[in-house]
Structure formats: structure tokens, C-alpha cells
Amino acid sequence: MDNSRHDQVTSPDTDRSVAVYRELREHIVSGRFQPNERLVEVDLARLLGAGRTTIRAALVRLDQEGLVQRSPNRGARVRLLSDREALEIEQVRSALEELLVRQAARRVTARDVAGLRADIARMRARVAEADPLGYSELNASFHQRIWTIAGNQVATSLLSTLKSQSIRFQYRTILQPGRLLRSLEEHQAIAEALAARDPEASQTAMRVHLQHVVHTLESAIARQNPQAARRTAGR
Questions:
Q1: What is the CATH number of domain 83-233?
Q2: What is the per-residue pLDDT for 172?
Q3: Which of 6, 36, 164, 169 could be a cystine partner for 80, CB 3.0 to 4.6 Å?
Q4: What's the pTM?
């Protein structure tokens, strides 16, 4: 018997478990399930067409990623992210994104540059159409392209988890008046620094962009909850 071939075959059960995990994760990230909403295993099993064991395994994995909170005898809920946590996530994200953009500047190809500039053109069209949510989706694709160019799988995995946790807060920043156009200009600066294959300029452009993201988020939090903003500022 060819054991090596047998080892390479993926179990259908494993494939299904991964598919259920990804589908449930997408429901949480997209906002179908709201923060603090209960995730009842029997309801999820019916929705996703999976057994409760598969659902439970997906919830365990999502708990490890910080998207779900599981409590003994109380089941699982979509994790409610505080304003303070959202800011801390953006600060950690900034450090990782600066690392990746420096690495990307050393690895970027002409084809990569063409892809980044195509992203910018599509983002510009969304700005012209006053479509902030469409812009936000392209924004995510632009950053993910940089992660791919950098080729750092550990940093990319960490960033993917951070982005999933903070996606609702990111919408709050892009909806702020005037932010859409400024964000486009910042992304264009990043793209051009990468086109020049300049690690220092690329890092600076990314730092400026993400500092503005943090400041915009702080302003959004302050307008919605002044007391929380004062506590955050006083840390």
C-alpha cells in the first residue's frame, strides 16, 4: 500500500470542517452576527448544514482568533470589542504593516506595481462615486496585496486576525467627512514609494496613513462616547 499517497489525501470531513469555519467567520466579519449576539450551536448547525461537533470545532477556533467568546455553561457569543481594544489593535497593526511594507519594497516587481496602481485606480473610482463601503473593500485588497508581496506568512496571519476583529471600527473611520479623499492620497503615496522600491519612503508613507487611521478612529470614538474617549486618552 502506498502510504505516502494516502497521507496526502485530505479527508472530506476535514474539508467540510474548514468550509464551515470559514463560512461562520465570514458571517461574523460581515456583520450578519452582531457583537454580543449569542451563537447557538443547534441554530448554526441548521444554518450551515453541519453537525454540532463541526460547529463546536469552528467556535473553538474562532474563540482562539478573538472573534468569539465562549463561556462555560453559557455558550458562545460574538466578541464585543471595546473602543480601547480597537485602538490597541490599530497600534499593533501599524507596527506589523510598517514591517511588511519595508519587506515588500525589497521584493516588489513590475507586475506588482501594476497591480497596486490598478487598485488605486479602482479606489479613485469609488471616491468619485461617493461609495465608502466599496472603497473600504478595495482598501483591504490593497493592503493584502502588499502582505502577499512581502511574503511574511507569520505577520500576514497576525494581521488577518487583527483586521477581522476591527472591521466594524474601520467602517467608522472611512465614513468620517473628508476621510475618503485623504485616504486615497495616502494609499497613492504608499503605492508610489513601493514603485520606487524605497523601503524608508514606503515605511514612512504607511506610518503616516495608519497614524491618520488611528486619529480618525479616536475622533469617531470621542464623538460617540466622550467619557470613553477621555478614559482612553488618560491611559
A1: 1.20.120.530
A2: 60
A3: 36
A4: 0.71
